[in-house]
UniProtKB/TrEMBL annotation:
<dbReference type="InterPro" id="IPR038222">
    <property type="entry name" value="DHHA2_dom_sf"/>
</dbReference>
<feature type="region of interest" description="Disordered">
    <location>
        <begin position="1"/>
        <end position="24"/>
    </location>
</feature>
<dbReference type="Pfam" id="PF02833">
    <property type="entry name" value="DHHA2"/>
</dbReference>
<protein>
    <submittedName>
        <fullName>Protein prune homolog</fullName>
    </submittedName>
</protein>
<dbReference type="InterPro" id="IPR004097">
    <property type="entry name" value="DHHA2"/>
</dbReference>
<dbReference type="InterPro" id="IPR038763">
    <property type="entry name" value="DHH_sf"/>
</dbReference>
<feature type="domain" description="DHHA2">
    <location>
        <begin position="399"/>
        <end position="539"/>
    </location>
</feature>
Length: 554
């Protein structure tokens, strides 16, 4: 370029003088740290009084350039900032050090008090917005999660893995769900007069996926198929007492703020009564047929939701939804996304669906996990909260195997099944012998189960008596300190003769079930513990017990 040519700036702006650039933020929301007269930062609350003798160290980004700070001394006038007038300024030493592990102790509120705040709906031109009001409260956390190996996150960095307090926000979606649950239970208590009872029920498997899909799909049907002729009711296909042994399920329902008193369990409603009078309609989830003990109500089935492709279903059922290798709650979430997506925005509601999807798909890593599972898990990620998807999954898995807060009976009931087998005739040949056999699966060593309570042996016998079983087999599967899988069994028989017959049967089946006796004091002759010398599945043990039940005379 020639020396006589005008510069590009001079062409467009011949006489303009450039104003000095200032980075001062005009929005008072950004005036968090103010500067006192000596250049030290001032906080919008009395942090110095809360810190006491603690020291605070500041990062290089906090220290900054001293000359740059002096250019913004005008921001130190608190009186001109309406957002900071209620607070006091406090000066903090520049050479202090800060411990992030004790952040919560900086707050000066009484932890025993319940702090609540209400977020009112916004108003536009004097009219209230249709947005639901939301409330917040600060609770002391009831449990310690520090033993759970949660993934690292910003929340755990500042608050620790198990913060002492938690802020709980109300969820409009859950509020609506709880209202639905309460209304349906009131209707059932009144006998559902003049209406069909439209029951949504899953298989008799007490897992998170079955319970979550039962609740949410019944809620979906009530929203999508409104009518005066039917009363849609979710019925949990387990006894209410059994929920005490499902720590992960109980934690999830509490965390999602679901009113458990409004839930209806299968032992709280007589479905055969409604079936007898022809007013029962059943929507079956996660299977093609009703459980054997409920097979008598099969004519009432009108819809099957989430059954596998190729499975034979009742021929009179016209509405059938195929699973497509997806979690049942994935299909439910998809239906909500089509008719009422705002319901999925609630953290409690999305957490209920997300937890079921993560457990059904092994944290989205199972070979059966579909693209739709991944998509819906991403859509519902708000439900994971501060844990994140991985953290929520790890927490639920930890709860599944944590038995520290359970009684012995609850541990045995957690994964329990029983069956009846008719054996050979008695000595007189006049009647057949019915053998009641039960099997309980646990995830801890037999020795740990017996040490769980001072009266563990007595509690096991009491559980056997309450379940009315002649033979109880407790199957233990766990990993030892060397990461080797171990399988142990504890056998409790009704009589010494029955125990002898079982041991004789096991000796004859030694190739399938090689046993090594475990000495445990205080068991008696009717209870014995064994270690299985080879890796054996529970299905194999169950099959052998069924064979013994069909041949036993004891």
């Amino acid at each position: 370029m020639r020396s006589g040519s005008p510069s590009p700036r001079a062409v467009g702006q011949p006489n303009q003088v450039q104003e000095p650039y200032s980075r001062a933020r005009k929005n008072p929301f950004f005036d968090g740290l103010l500067r006192a007269e000596d250049g030290t930062p001032s906080l919008p609350f009395d942090l110095q009084a809360s810190l006491g003798s603690r020291n605070i160290s500041r990062t290089m980004s906090d220290i900054g350039n001293t000359h740059t700070r002096n250019a913004h001394d005008s921001l130190t006038d608190i009186g001109n900032n309406p957002f900071l007038q209620p607070f006091e300024r406090s000066k903090i030493d520049k050479t202090a050090s800060f411990a992030f592990t004790d952040v919560q102790s900086l707050f000066s509120f009484d932890p025993n008090e319940l702090i609540e705040a209400n977020e009112k709906p916004p108003t536009v031109n004097g009219l209230t917005s249709p947005t639901s009001a939301k409330s917040f409260r600060v609770n002391r956390r009831k449990e310690n999660l520090s033993t759970v190996s949660l993934p690292q996150s910003a929340a755990s960095f500042y608050n620790g893995d198990s913060p002492e307090f938690e802020i709980v926000a109300s969820c409009p979606s859950i509020n609506k769900l709880n209202s639905f649950l309460k209304a349906t239970k009131d209707e059932v208590n009144a006998g559902v007069p003049g209406r069909f009872l439209h029951v949504v029920m899953a298989q008799d498997v007490p897992d998170v996926g079955s319970i979550a899909s039962t609740i949410t799909y019944a809620f979906y049907l009530s929203e999508a198929r409104k009518g005066d002729q039917i009363c849609t009711v979710p019925v949990i296909n387990m006894k209410r007492l059994d929920i005490r042994s499902q720590a992960e399920l109980k934690w999830l329902l509490d965390s999602c703020q679901i009113d458990q008193s409004s839930l209806i369990f299968v032992d709280e409603i007589d479905l055969s009564y409604y079936d007898l009078f022809g007013s029962l309609k059943v929507v079956l989830l996660n299977g093609n047929k009703l459980p054997a003990k409920q097979e008598a109500m099969k004519q009432a089935v009108v819809e099957i939701f989430n059954c596998k492709e190729g499975e034979s279903v009742y021929p009179w059922v016209k509405t059938v939804t195929i699973a497509e290798d997806s979690s049942c709650c994935t299909l439910v979430a998809e239906k909500f996304a089509l008719i009422s997506p705002e319901i999925l925005a609630g953290q409690g509601f999305s957490r209920l669906l997300l937890a079921a999807i993560l457990l059904d798909s092994a944290n989205l890593c199972s070979p059966q996990c579909s693209l739709k599972d991944n998509y819906m898990a991403t859509l519902l990620i708000h439900g994971a909260g501060r844990f994140g998807c991985n953290g929520l999954y790890q927490l639920l898995r930890y709860k599944m195997y944590d038995v520290s807060d359970l009684k012995v009976a609850d541990i045995l009931r957690k994964d329990f099944k029983k069956w009846t087998r008719v054996g050979k005739p008695d000595s007189a040949g006049s009647r057949m012998m019915a053998s009641q056999i039960g099997m309980s699966s646990i995830g801890v060593p037999i020795a740990q189960l017996l040490d769980h309570e001072d009266t563990s042996v007595r509690e096991i016998k009491y559980f056997q008596h309450m379940e009315k079983i002649r033979l109880l087999m407790i199957v233990s599967g766990y990993y030892d300190s060397k990461k080797n899988f171990k399988r142990e069994i504890l056998v409790s028989a009704e009589s010494v003769e029955l125990m002898k017959n079982l041991l004789f049967f096991f000796n004859a089946s030694a190739s399938q079930l090689p046993l090594k006796a475990i000495h445990q004091p205080g068991l008696g002759e009717e209870m014995q513990a064994f270690e299985i010398d080879k890796v054996t599945s529970r299905k194999t043990i169950e099959r052998l017990l069924e064979e013994f039940g069909g041949t036993s005379k004891g």
